[in-house]
Structure formats: C-alpha cells, structure tokens
Amino acid sequence: MATTFLDKVKQRLRITHNKLDDDLSAEISAARDELQRIGVDAAMAASEDDPLITEAVKTYVQYKNAPDPKEADNLWASWITQADGIRKARTYRRSD
Question: What are the φ/ψ torsions at residue 5 (nearest 5 degrees)?
Fold first, then answer.
C-alpha cells in the first residue's frame, strides 16, 4: 500500500491512530492555502513531491499540534522562514 502525504505527516507527529485524520487533513489544506495566499503557484503549493513544500507543510501541521507553547513558537518561526523563502523563489511564484 502506498504511503499518503497524511501518513507522512502522522509519522512526523508520531501518530499511529486515525482519530485525528480529519483535523490533520484540514491543517494540511490550510498550510497549502496559506502558501497560495502569499503568492505561491497553486500547483506548486499542492505538490507532494517537492521537498521544500512538503517540509513547510509538515512544519505548519507540527506547529498546529505542538503541545508546548515554546515549541509552537519555534515551529511558527520555522514555518514563516520556510514559507517566505518559498514565496521569494522564482520557481514557486504564481504568475498573475
């Protein structure tokens, strides 16, 4: 059976059950929507193969699920740095 992106996110979070799948899927979508909002091309933001996109999305979901406020702050800062770097890269820009 193929590993889904949700499975990869759950692995990052060390989650082995399915109880949070709907919430995690919504957070994955929110991360991709945020990337589009800041100017990343929709197809690039939806990529499950691009290492920068996938890492940024995983970081966003980690931030949303961090049990400790300090860890959440660090993950938020990481997300902002990753998203901004992606936004600035010509390869990822939306062509308006």
Answer: -65, -40
